[in-house]
User: What shape does this take?
Amino acid sequence: KASASVREVEYTLADGVDIFYGMAVKEITDKGPIFVKKEYDEEGNVVSESDPQLFEADSTIIAVSQRPKDKLVNTTHGLDSNDRGLLEVDENGQTSREGIFSAGDVVTGPLNVVKAARAAKETAEHMAEYLEKLN
Assistant: This one.
């Protein structure tokens, strides 16, 4: 179930974002992430899972949810979070760990999908600048 309004989805699609519902990451490979589509019953139990599907990519950006997963924050050295459990980033979207960027709900708390997509796009531009400086 999407938390975005029809209008927000339309704006996001117009901005060039592809939306895939019900997909779950099964594995991240050198060729890109592998997803499966899951279907759930009314109690939230998985009732079916599709065959794995590779989404070829040069790089993979992980979006973990509407707030940091405790395991991610607690097991990733150098990621600072605030008292609300949100990741701390600088004006470019870079976390306290060099070369790790973050945007959207994991930084600000719940936003609408348009604002989250815009923040992700701006952070991606800063990521690209960062990577260009490395080369």
The chain has a mean pLDDT of 81. The CA atoms of residues 99 and 117 lie 20 Å apart. DSSP finds four helices and four strands in the chain. The radius of gyration is 16 Å.
